[in-house]
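Subject: sequence -> structure tokens, single chain

Hey, anyone have a minute? Need the predicted structure for the following. Not urgent.
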Amino acid sequence: MPLPLKGLRVLDFTRLLPGPLCSMLLADFGAEVIKVENPRGGDPGRQTAPLKGGVSLRHLLINRGKKSLTLNLKAKEGKDVLYRLVERSDVLLEGFRPGVMARLKADYATLSGINPGLVYASLTGFGQNGPLKDVAGHDINYIGYAGVLSLTGKGEPLAPGVQIADLGGGLLMLFGVLAALFERSRTTKGRYLDISMLDASALFLAPVIAEALTLAGRPKLENMRLNGKWACYGVYPTKDGKFLTLGALESKFWERFCRLVQRLEWVPLQYEEPAQEGLKGALRALFLTKLQKDWLGLLEGEDACVGPVLEPEEALDHPQLEQRGLFIKPPASEGGLGFSLAGALGLAAQGAEHLKPAPCLGEHTAQILKEAGYEKDDIAKFQAEGVI
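Reply:
Had a minute. Here:
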């Protein structure tokens, strides 16, 4: 079957992680994604560690399936190239600070005049309005403002090892683009999307905001349902220094767990608040009596909600992730990892042959300009003048 976004053209001005995640998923679904980069070094993500042979492995993982066009939008000729490309494009993604694209005369007001059907998505840290709109930030700042960071850690907030706001922002951008494309299919009109990583972070509060606001006093570490209040939901060490997750929130799962570990006397203590500290200590002591693999031999696969805390390299080899096709081996560029993340809904894994490696800087510039109607002499002139 043809991929669902085949025939869609995306101009991608985003860099680093959040926007490129969105555009990679669009490419996985079949869209033609043109990664528009500054001729002087391109996406800063190309220099992000870890490097192998001078190539950023992180950059390779989130930029597969795209074409790279170098373009200097500060030059008049660069703007002319953009305007010509916009005429035949469906989506434009950008991740600069508010006002940058307007100064370059590449904002929605300008480009929608050229193509009224253009879906234009801006992804920023704090959004296009508000007192923080022009402030620099990173993932840890956004989840701090959103109230998410206050609910992590033990004793004091702990910075997560993954980028919640960045990845959430990229996925929110993807949702917004697909929704706007559906709207356009009925109205023929495009739309401007103002997406922020702060907004995306706040969405993670949806399951817990009511609990947080109704606690006596303000929410604190380890006093909520999912961050340490109950012994039946937590992380426990094993004899070999590894860890297990216990998520037996429902009484039936807790009872099954207690039965399997032969501690039926714990069943009525599940939600007895005075018993929680003692129960946590008893669980910790119990799990420390065996190796992680031995506990998994007893509990994994049972309706007890117990699983391992895997290291990233262990996750690569786990049969469940392998069966789901979450890690695939598309054609790899030189210096690559030899595997990639499958992306959304298994589509990439089902049709990995269409996936191409992340492009070299400017790899498709000449091809894209020729398709846009530029002659060989035009392209040579652009190159000589630093337009591309």
